[in-house]
Design goal:
The protein is α+β, with helices and mostly antiparallel strands. It has two domains: about 1-35 and about 140-154; about 40-130, no CATH class. The chain has two helices and seven strands; from the N terminus they run H-E-E-E-E-E-E-E-H. It has helices spanning about 1-35, 135-154, and strands at about 40, 45, 65-70, 75-85, 85-95, 105-110, 115-125. The strands form two sheets. Strands 2-5-4-7-6 form a five-stranded antiparallel β-sheet, with no helix packed on it. A two-stranded antiparallel sheet has the order 1-3. The two termini are about 25 Å apart. InterPro entries: Sleep_regulator. Keywords: Membrane, Signal, Transmembrane, Transmembrane helix. This is Protein sleepless.
Length: about 150
């Protein structure tokens, strides 16, 4: 009977060790996500007929000539203009000029197929004003959760 109790105590101690180890690993991964986030933003526009800054934005992390260090996060402004139903779009990616909440807002509208709608987005994080949402943080969090579950099974 005493040996069963010792085995049970050993198993409990080991599960506590594995559990605390997995919490530690998960914490390290979350900290890595925070460290990866930075203050660089894409900086471009397509206002003068340039097509480098459209919605199908394809700059990579290595394209440093289109990046800038920013104090207040990043912005992306998409303007849709319509004149009698014919529409066009323009984009501006830049540093935010002041600290803002991370969100998008819309203004303007259309009357009889004419007008403009402006979507302005503010975000914080490394190159967050790209065309698509970055999934690196989600990926790291998912890996952390999988590792946590794996270590708890051991």
């Amino acid at each position: 009977m005493a040996s069963v109790q010792k085995v049970t105590e050993s198993v409990l101690r080991m599960s506590m060790y594995v559990s605390s180890r997995s919490v530690y690993i998960t914490f390290i991964l979350y900290a890595a996500v925070i460290v990866v986030s930075g203050d660089k933003c894409y900086k471009c526009d397509d206002l003068l007929g340039k097509s480098e800054c459209t919605d199908a934005f394809s700059f990579g992390v290595g394209d440093t000539d289109k990046q800038a260090e920013c104090a207040y996060g990043c912005s992306k402004v998409k303007t849709e203009t319509q004149v009698f139903g014919a529409s066009g779009f323009s984009y501006v990616r830049a540093c935010a000029t002041e600290s803002r909440d991370t969100k998008c807002t819309e203004s303007g509208g259309f009357v009889l197929g004419t007008g403009a709608k402006i979507t302005t987005c503010y975000c914080e994080g490394n190159l967050c004003n790209s065309a698509t949402y970055r999934t690196t943080s989600t990926f790291l969090i998912t890996v952390g959760l999988i590792m946590t579950a794996f270590y708890q099974l051991l």
